[in-house]
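README, section 4: Worked example with a bound small molecule

Sections 1 through 3 covered apo chains. Here we extend the same pipeline to holo records, where the ligand is supplied as SMILES alongside the sequence. The molecule in this example is zinc ion. Nothing else about the input changes; the structure line simply encodes the ligand pose together with the chain.
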Amino acid sequence: MVKKTIQKKKKVVTKKKVEKKGKDQIKFIGQVTKIRQTEPRTVIEWPRTLTHVHTYGMLSPFFKGLREGKLMATRCPNKNCPENRLWIPPRAHCPDCHTEMTWKTLPNPVIGKIYSFTEVVYAGIGIELSTPYWQVDVELPGLATIPKSYLLYGKPYIGMKVKAEFRTKNPTNTVLDYCWVPYEQ
Ligand SMILES: [Zn+2]
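The generated complex, written as structure tokens:
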């Protein structure tokens, strides 16, 4: 008898290399926490910052205008609308008839009259102005609204003439980029 030797074919399994290091690996992208204490219980310091992403949407021209030293208002273009005066703060759509508003730049210098004022000693969160400051409501010709802002310097009185001032250098890109200064003729 001839002994047949069956040679078992060795199956060659090529193991797929799993890359342990490289692009595919998930990375920790944060900042590691600091342990403040371990006794009697563990307390960690977890640094966090909060960025509020906010869109100005259709009101973007107003803020672009402030950066360029222009005060821009909106007006309802609907001839049948009962309100055709200008709006500041601007509106994307007419509050009376819901038509999309059109833009108008007020001619410089923008001169207004103080309608009312108040001294702000404790400002709300987000109002990044040094206190105390004078918050002033200024009447402007042709406006349906009496916009609120602040007096950059001086002491206000009712009926006082003021001129718009713009923070075009290092703008905050917020409504704080315009304010009022006393205007004497
Ligand atoms: Zn309207």
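What to look for in the output: Residues 78 and 99 are 7 Å apart (CA to CA). The pocket of zinc ion is lined by residues 76, 78, 81, 83, 94, 96-97, 99 (CB under 6 Å).

Section 5 describes how to batch many such records.
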